[in-house]
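Private note to self, pasted from the team thread so I don't lose it. Backbone tokens:
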């Protein structure tokens, strides 16, 4: 996703410096070929810039990128604005905003939804937290990356909204997986089932975008199971801090932890269907129509049970 975002900024005529732990990747090579400059550290990337974007995997990575010994806020000339687009913790977003303010910089937390397709198409939904002035400064840049940009409040608010998004996404993806399993076991043609329910009250982004990939046997990311596990753990911690009992969230976290533990952590979140059906059953259900797949349904012998 970071590659697509940086590419949009290059297309808009901005000078872009990039940093990644590993330079020798196709994503970095593509951006360097398009005119981006390489930096040896986040601090070097941030030196004297108008804005620094971060899109990394985990809160610990966000902390290292901005607050670590070679982080963006350790640059000799601090950047004007930090924009973190990682799904992270609200508390870390608040801490970064405080430390940025001490250096005379602004900071916004701006996690996104829309996945790799949304990043490529610049159609992401961007959930923003930060001071009004900082969000106003970030908005022209964010508009080059996304289609829906909403300011939710002070620092940390964007992260809270993204956790809401992840609660909804997890529940929807599990429900989709169970529905495909039910249809297959009942002898329905899964494609026809999706055509029917997708045109009614059950229609959703998940049904329109992930379900067809499941039926094709394409269980690659998209969004990694491992990353959703991280997000759901954060959501559970935040819910506990708010004295909220959210049983569906707790169940979703457990199911995705089990899926990751069964060896599917690097697959897309729609690989949840493997809890219910083998990959062979998916193929047979898609190809054989109403009579196919039901007898082959079950847990995959090639995958540990979850």
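Design output:
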């Amino acid at each position: 996703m970071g590659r697509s975002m940086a590419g949009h900024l290059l297309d808009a005529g901005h000078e872009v410096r990039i940093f990644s732990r590993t330079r020798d990747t196709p994503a970095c090579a593509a951006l360097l070929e398009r005119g981006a400059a390489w930096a040896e550290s986040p601090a070097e990337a941030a030196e004297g810039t108008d804005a620094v974007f971060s899109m990394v995997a985990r809160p610990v990575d966000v902390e290292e990128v901005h607050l670590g010994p070679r982080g963006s806020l350790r640059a000799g000339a601090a950047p004007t604005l930090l924009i973190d687009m990682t799904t992270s913790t609200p508390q870390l977003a608040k801490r970064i905003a405080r430390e940025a303010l001490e250096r005379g910089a602004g900071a916004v937390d701006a996690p996104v939804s829309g996945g790799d397709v949304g990043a490529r198409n610049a159609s992401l939904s961007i959930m923003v937290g930060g001071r009004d002035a900082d969000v106003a400064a970030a908005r022209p840049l964010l508009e080059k990356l996304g289609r829906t940009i909403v300011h939710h409040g002070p620092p940390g608010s964007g992260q809270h909204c993204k956790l809401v998004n992840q609660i909804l996404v997890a529940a929807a993806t599990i429900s989709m997986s169970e529905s495909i399993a039910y249809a297959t076991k009942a002898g329905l043609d899964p494609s026809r089932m999706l055509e029917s329910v997708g045109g009614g009250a059950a229609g959703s982004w998940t049904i329109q975008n992930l379900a067809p990939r499941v039926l094709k046997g394409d269980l690659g990311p998209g969004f990694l199971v491992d990353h959703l596990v991280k997000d759901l753990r954060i959501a559970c911690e935040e819910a506990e801090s708010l004295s909220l009992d959210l049983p569906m969230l707790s169940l979703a976290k457990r199911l995705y932890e089990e899926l990751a533990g069964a060896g599917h952590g690097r697959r897309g979140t729609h690989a949840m269907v493997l809890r219910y059906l083998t990959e062979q059953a998916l193929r047979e259900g898609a190809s054989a129509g109403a009579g196919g797949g039901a007898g082959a349904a079950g847990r995959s012998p090639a995958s540990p049970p979850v």
